[in-house]
Design brief:
4 domains; 470 residues; PGP-like_dom2; NAD/GMP synthase domain-containing protein; Rossmann fold; disordered C terminus
Amino acid sequence: MKEPAVGFDLDLTLFDTRPGIAATWAVVAEETGHAIDGEWIVGHLGPPIEDLIAPFVPAEEIDAAVKRYREIYRDHGVPASPLLPGVREAFAAIRANHGRILVITGKNAPDAERHLKHAGLEADEVIGWVWAEEKAEAMREHGVSVYIGDHPADVAAGRSAGAVAIGVLTGNNTAEELSAEVTMADLSGFPAWLEEHLTRTRLARLEEALARYDHLVVAFSGGADSAFLLAAAARFLGPDRVTAATAVSASLPAAELDRAREFAASLGVEHVTPATDEMARDGYRANAGDRCYFCKAELLDVLGPIAGEKDATVATGTNADDAVAGFRPGIRAAHERGAATPLKDAGLTKRQIRALSREWGLSTWDKPAAACLSSRVAYGIAITPARLARVERAEAALRAALAAKGVPVRDLRVRDLGESAKVEIDAELVAELSPEILSHVDGWARVTVDERGFRSGAMNELLPEPEKYR
């Protein structure tokens, strides 16, 4: 997965440093007796500080004035410089896409870091004392693909580095003067732009990657991710070069198999339903923290011969979010067996997969997460067909009871804790789980409700810390 690296200028892009800069120069002017026009300086921000004060300070005193300015800027400049609109949201959008944030600025690096710390923001790299082509060099060195600034020199540097150059109108320049590929009033519009930009970039990357395969066998669970991968493979390779493989076992709810058949048929791809026997694997039945490793190992070991007969590659629906989730023993098993992960490699997140699925008219675009039935059983409790069947019956009964009362349910889990069961439902619907509704959960001595609501991977919270990262 190639992560996005986004670079930002600092002055008038992240912070309105004009009040702070003017206030600091006012102190220097008072101390030195020079008539330094702070208002003029903040109206021309961008070039190096030495160039900006040259009209007001004798050449032989510039270095001393700049030194003094930097000594007191932390006290006078940083606190007086407000964060500009949309900055927090822009940083959050980059993090949500597993990206890196770089601040590449003409300001000295220590003061740039002080601004970020004062605002409670964190960047992966802060590169200071660079201007114009020096910024471009820093971008190339760090693989920056998008650069945002308020000055024409920022735009030129981004363009020189081969990055998408975005100009923001929070500085002293007009859109015409910036002449950027993309112009924004401020960073408030950046999250939506970034999401669309990355979605299109990553989709193109996926198309290019899929085109390299002669034939693809998609491990098709019926969920949103594998469904999108199957649809993308059918679209970019052609249906005759794609096979959907849905494993049939006690851990797959019967209704999921029917939906998988219908979806594959709608794409015109071959659909095979090989039987898997994860129950035969001691590690799976034992249900320790690495249970998913044995499940995925069984699946890939079964699909391997099917792919071999077609001279095909097996691919899973692992996405970019899965790759950074921390606890995914199933991903390790698939990697060991050489399974391809086109969605992850393209960088596509779950959110982007759902957005593209909706755009393509796929019925799975808003399908709730549907992990296998074994994921409902607390670690350390042996997995058996009877236990899985009990969970499936309980969830079906609960959904039916809630539907009868007109309660729309998206996510619902009955967690098997041994003698007791715990019900998770969409957080906003927890209050709907009355004693009458819960009476439909049969087979346990006690049934409780998780007041925090549904959380994907809730069982992992019960693992000892070292187990979570195996």
